[in-house]
Amino acid sequence: MGGRWTVETGLVEARFWRREDGRVHCYLCARHCRIPEGGIGFCGVRKVVDGRLYALNYGRIVTLNVDPIEKKPLSHFMPGALVASIATAGCNYACQYCQNWDISQRRRVEEPYTPPEYVVEEAVRRGASGISYTYNEPTIFAEYAMDVMALAHSRGLFNTWVTNGYMTVEALGEISRDLDAATVDFKGHGDRAFYRKYIWVKDAEDIFESLREMKRRGIFIEVTDLVVPVKEGLREESFERLVKFVYDELGPDTPLHFLRFHPDYRMMDVPHTPVGLLEKYVEKARSMGLHHVYIGNVWGHPYEDTYCPGCGYKVVDRYGFYITRFELDRHGRCPKCGYKLNFILRWRGVEAPVLIDTGS
Ligand code: SF4
After folding, report:
1. Where residue 208 falls among pLDDT bands split at 50, 70, 90?
2. 18 lines ligand 1 (CB under 6 A)
3. Which atom of ligand 1 is least distant from the CA of 90?
4. Which of 12, 112, 193, 265 has the greatest number of CB atoms lying within 10 Å of its CB?
5. Each residue of 123-152: pLDDT tens digit?
6. Degrees (nearest 5) of the Cα angle 59, 143, 50?
7. Cα of 280 from ligand 1 centre, angstroms
């Protein structure tokens, strides 16, 4: 733990790289940067020094907040839990509308070093049940995240990633060892033209592959889709492909959240997503067979709530990140018909706080 930290250089050697044709090939994420001597990868936090790749952002966290897990959003995993949330500078995406652009699009690391032990101790001290790796893409601080995750597990905390899913299957194989749940974020329904124009990523194929791998490895998954009201972000065939993928490959009980866009960063001229459009998507995805489809970023909307797929009874009321009524029992069963919903209410021996709060 922390053994790769060298005070002399201020650098920590990265994982997931090999030498190829006089360059370093980083295969941590699906960008597969080939970096020359002295160069830095697209994410801005991986540098080649003397033929080796170093993670400039190891332990250089920009924040340590405690959030409700519903903020990630994770609506079906340990509801009511608090999660200590960490991030670093940099990102492997270049989203032109990023709401955290001040950290994600910064290509400079200037924070002091925070040991993994401190993050875990703070999480425990501040009453969190888990740690979330979020705000910027956790893949690009994978070495640090893996060290924190292992420690977190040893202290009985769970780990969740909020990720764009744009990592390689090789890296995911190691990351997944201590990963319990993930929110995987699509934008513009995963449309190829949208990804090229607004994110600078060639397409969403690697994300679908990551989701398959997460499913194979038993990670609890929720999917989001940020609906950006520009023509490339609203293509019907991309919408249908995404919903069909979730249904066929992840299962009809997988939560899918359609998130409202708000203008930010370089896309201040694009309006908020019309709520009527989000409603249309929720209804369509439900008609295609998905059981748990939600609207996000519209507080107080009825599509924030959970309905029993067995009898239609409303079992959970939410207001934004907060649960205002929870009627499932500790096995996740509907009080009216007994249908068992896809909720994780106990993890590694710890019960979801919502059960304790409501006496379910
Ligand atoms: S993690 Fe960074 S350096 Fe590595 S492939 Fe992705 S963007 Fe490039």
Report:
1. very high
2. no
3. 2
4. 12
5. 999 999 999 999 999 999 999 999 999 999
6. 90
7. 37
β-strand 158-163 against 130-133: which pairing, if any? parallel
DSSP-assigned states of every residue in 157-209 = -EEEEEE---B-HHHHHHHGGG--EEEEEEEGGG-HHHIIIII--S-SHHHHH
- The CA distance from 186 to 138, in Å, is 15
Question: Does the Cβ of 187 fall within 6 Å of ligand 1?
Answer: no
| Tokens, residue 61 | 């966290």
Taking CA atoms only, the protein residue closest to ligand 1 atom 2 is 43
Enumerate helices (H) and strands (E) in the chain, giving the number of each: 9, 20
| DSSP result, 56-80 | TTTT--SEEEEEEGGGTT-SSBSTT
pLDDT per position as a tens digit, 2-16? 445 554 556 799 999
Q: Alpha helices of the chain — where are they, by DSSP H? A: 101-104, 116-125, 142-154, 169-175, 192-194, 205-216, 236-245, 275-287, 353-358
pLDDT at 111: 87
Q: What residue owns the CA closest to ligand 1's atom 6?
A: 29
Instruction: Tell whether the model's pLDDT for residue 108 goes beyond 90.
Output: no
pLDDT tens, position by position, 28-39: 999 999 999 999
d(C-alpha 202, C-alpha 161), whole Å: 23
d(CA 81, CA 181): 13
184 CA from centroid of ligand 1 (Å): 18
* Ligand 1 contact, 183 CB (< 6 A): no
Decide: 41 in ligand 1 pocket, CB within 6 A.
yes
Q: Could you state, in order of their start, the residue ranges of all structural domains in the chain? A: 5-55, 63-312
The CATH class, in words, for 63-312 is alpha beta
